[in-house]
Design goal:
Elements (H helix, E strand, L loop, with lengths): L1 E3 L5 H13 L3 E2 L8 H11 L5 H12 L1 H7 L7 E6 L7 H10 L4 E7 L2 H14 L6 E4 L2 H11 L3 E6 L9 H13 L6 E7 L4 H8 L5 H17 L8 E8 L4 E8 L3 E5 L2 E5 L4 E8 L3 H10 L2 E8 L5 E8 L1
Parallel strand pairs: 1-5, 2-12, 3-4, 3-6, 4-5, 6-7
Antiparallel strand pairs: 7-14, 8-9, 9-12, 10-11, 13-14
Length: 321
Amino acid sequence: MENFSYTETQDKFRNEILNGLKENPKHLLSKYFYDKKGDLLFQQIMNMPEYYLTDCELEIFTEKTADLANAINAFDEPFDLIELGAGDATKSSFLLDFLIKQNADFTYMPIDISGNIIEVLEDRLALKIPDLHITGLNGEYFEMLDKVNEISSKRKVILFLGSNIGNMEIEEAYHFCSELRQKLNPGDILLIGFDLKKNPHTILQAYNDKTGITAAFNLNLLTRINEGLNADFDVNKFKHYQTYDPLTGACRSYLISLKDQMVTIENEKIQFKENEAVYMEISQKYSLDEINLMAVKNGFEPLREISDSKKWFIDAIWEVV
């Protein structure tokens, strides 16, 4: 087991937080949600009954595992199975176990920005799937893909699950797919999860739960800034706010300042006006036509889509051309 270490620098964290809060409108980067407490809160979100995404994709990985394996050409030749934003690998572990039992020749390479998650994942999978060859990579996706290409020339199969592509603006998602294409070779496969447009009430409830777990997840970033940058946010003076636009498919979260207030971050003072919004995250929803267009425009050929029984979510399989 190898673990390539990545240390998120204090300077980068400080600069990106301060730059976002000095812009108009203010915004924070959702990648910083995931510290140790944030990881735990997100696990709770995925277990909420309203948060349908987890159950939908889990159904695909538990009930259509053979379809997934065949779609990624898992038995043709040795390959590297690279998961971007692996988390706890709850879903992908079903595919990993299936591939091991079918004697597929592959190395699993989970990539995650959370070093804590990578350590926990390696320990967990070593017990759960002892025959699995695993190389954990802690850092930013494309930096770690460069590392993968340095250490292995095998065919690549990329997993990008959980509608992580939905955490990008559409233009950003196109840029991401284009950049990802540049890291891959013809014949490589991308398996990518998309949340589909559906009843707006179903979507909004998934991101605005009555128990307040999603709100706590967003507010935890303020606590992380307090602890990491010697800031003095009062989280009780901010409130989570969620929107969904059924025409564009954009589901956006904000933190709203409940009063005029001044927050100190290290030696900087940031003013918040009453009712001012801080943009936190997007969860973009797509139609099938929009998904296929994204593939073609970025150098991929759509091979097939595997959906849950409700047809609320798909894992699209694209081949690099």
